[in-house]
Write a structure and sequence with these properties.
mainly alpha; globular; 9 helices; two-stranded antiparallel sheet; A middle domain of Talin 1
């Protein structure tokens, strides 16, 4: 299937909808987590730090809720760990920051942005993330409220207007 260029606008009406995914949708379709660190950083560079943080946090939550921290680091999504961790710190969600920080320590302290290298560290260290997974599940009840408070407090950093390539099956 081919991608279709669509016009995306993130303005006050989208922000006021309280739909975190809609707010970071330009990043979702524009930032590759699959083509390595250079491409990832290049794709991220056109977006504000607050956008990058929420994007990374959304990936982190999606993966951990689907298969735990092990899955997060094992998959391509592990490339976002640093932005997610920094995002939680920026938003002052220190318990979440501490969770990611502890997970990185269990992988040697600074997981690679390269998926193969991270997978090698998972095999080498054989980390047990079960306690961190459980803690995340316990903490995240009101997380979306905090994310939306941060977005609303920094709304101009989330404004976007432009064309984005979206796979046709998602339109």
């Amino acid at each position: 299937m081919h991608d279709e260029l669509i016009d995306l606008v993130i303005d006050d009406s989208v922000i006021n909808s309280n739909d975190v995914f809609k707010i970071i949708e330009p990043l979702w379709w524009s930032v590759s987590i699959y083509e390595g660190e250079d491409q990832y950083n290049k794709d991220l560079s056109r977006f504000s730090s607050p956008q990058q943080y929420i994007f990374a946090i959304q990936w982190y939550l999606s993966e951990v809720n689907n298969g735990g921290h092990y899955q997060f680091y094992d998959n391509s999504t592990g490339i976002v760990w640093q932005e997610a961790m920094n995002g939680f710190k920026e938003i002052n969600l220190i318990e979440f920051y501490d969770l990611i920080k502890e997970s990185t320590i269990r992988l040697g302290g600074n997981p690679s942005k390269d998926r193969d290298e991270r997978q090698g560290k998972l095999e080498e260290y054989e980390p047990d993330f079960e306690d961190l997974d459980t803690k995340l599940y316990e903490l995240e009840d009101n997380l979306e409220i905090y994310l939306m408070d941060y977005i609303r407090s920094n709304r101009s950093d989330f404004y976007f207007s432009g064309k984005v390539a979206v796979p046709k099956e998602f339109r």
